């Protein structure tokens, strides 16, 4: 296997880990809100604070150089704002619409990634990538079709913001001046920017709620590690190895995981349209794995 093929395979694996763990957000955040009574600003602050400490510890153990230029600080702050904005809008949308629906709306971000890459960076498309994007979006549509109730427009609008913020974040990591930065260092500074943003947000809104008990803190730590540190680090590695387009398409694992959590943990309904939606999403992932490394340009 050539080095290019090996890097592509690594990127696919990292992308699947990233999207799969990102889909775990409702598993920890919803119980924190509904069972433990922790406010959203507090959840977001502790999520990013704990994840920053974790990532900082990794950098120290690996003896990474954390020195960055002023230009990089500006770029990192902007990327951190985009990532924090995505986290904020996604978790706030849970207040108005089911988490599975919110995640499937969020997944439409590959369209934004593709449009940005085509119109601003002149990336050429491939038959396989185009097909997988269409299959993924059809799968998402079928997943949304299961909701027979009235979906709150505010929730849809808030979740839709993540389509653009996350797409800009993914492209920014790939195409900005920090694209060649060490993945651990880049993740650390993005999470640090998010922690500072949410500290300010919490202090200027509801304040930082006191959190007591083993269970709430366990959920916060898991929220900080799995769908934040692990997800964001593997996302950056996936972008570096596989590129923005393949990484965004493999993000279809996010709604897959979110829907499974909704069905098996939160007891949400699961019909035939959901089944076919999951099949299409899995098919798109398999196609990317099998053919994404050898695209036929169109």
TrEMBL record:
One cellular component (GO) term of this entry: membrane
InterPro entries to which the protein is assigned, alphabetical: EamA_dom, EmrE-like
UniProt keyword list: Membrane, Transmembrane, Transmembrane helix
Residue ranges of every copy of the EamA domain listed in the record: 10-143, 155-289
Transmembrane segments: 12-32, 44-61, 73-94, 100-121, 128-148, 154-173, 185-208, 220-239, 246-266, 272-292
Signal sequence residues: none
Pfam family membership, one: EamA
PANTHER family, sorted: ACYL-MALONYL CONDENSING ENZYME-RELATED (PTHR22911), SOLUTE CARRIER FAMILY 35 MEMBER G2-RELATED (PTHR22911:SF137)
Record-given protein name: EamA domain-containing membrane protein RarD
Native source organism of the sequence: Dysgonomonas macrotermitis
């Amino acid at each position: 296997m050539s080095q290019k093929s090996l890097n592509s395979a690594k990127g696919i694996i990292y992308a699947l880990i990233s999207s799969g763990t990102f889909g775990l957000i409702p598993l920890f955040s919803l119980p924190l809100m509904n069972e433990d009574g922790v406010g959203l600003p507090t959840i977001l602050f502790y999520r990013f604070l704990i994840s920053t400490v974790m990532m900082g510890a990794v950098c120290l153990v690996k003896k990474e150089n954390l020195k960055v230029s002023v230009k990089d600080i500006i770029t990192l702050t902007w990327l951190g704002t985009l990532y924090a904005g995505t986290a904020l809008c996604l978790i706030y949308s849970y207040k108005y619409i089911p988490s599975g629906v919110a995640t499937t709306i969020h997944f439409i971000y590959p369209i934004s990634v593709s449009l940005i890459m085509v119109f601003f960076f002149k990336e050429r498309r491939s038959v396989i990538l185009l097909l997988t994007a269409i299959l993924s979006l059809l799968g998402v549509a079928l997943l949304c079709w299961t909701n027979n109730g009235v979906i709150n427009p505010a929730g849809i609008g808030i979740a839709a913001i993540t389509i653009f913020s996350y797409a800009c974040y993914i492209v920014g990591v790939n195409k900005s001046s920090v694209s060649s930065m060490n993945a651990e260092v880049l993740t650390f500074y993005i999470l640090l920017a998010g922690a500072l943003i949410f500290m300010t947000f919490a202090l200027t809104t509801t304040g930082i709620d006191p959190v007591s008990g083993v269970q709430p803190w366990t959920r916060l730590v898991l929220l900080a590690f799995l769908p934040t540190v692990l997800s964001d680090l593997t996302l950056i590695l996936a972008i570096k190895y596989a590129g923005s387009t393949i990484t965004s398409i493999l993000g279809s694992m996010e709604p897959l995981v979110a829907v499974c959590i909704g069905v098996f943990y939160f007891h949400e309904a699961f019909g035939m349209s959901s089944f076919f939606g999951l099949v299409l999403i899995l098919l798109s992932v398999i196609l990317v794995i099998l053919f994404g490394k050898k695209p036929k340009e169109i």
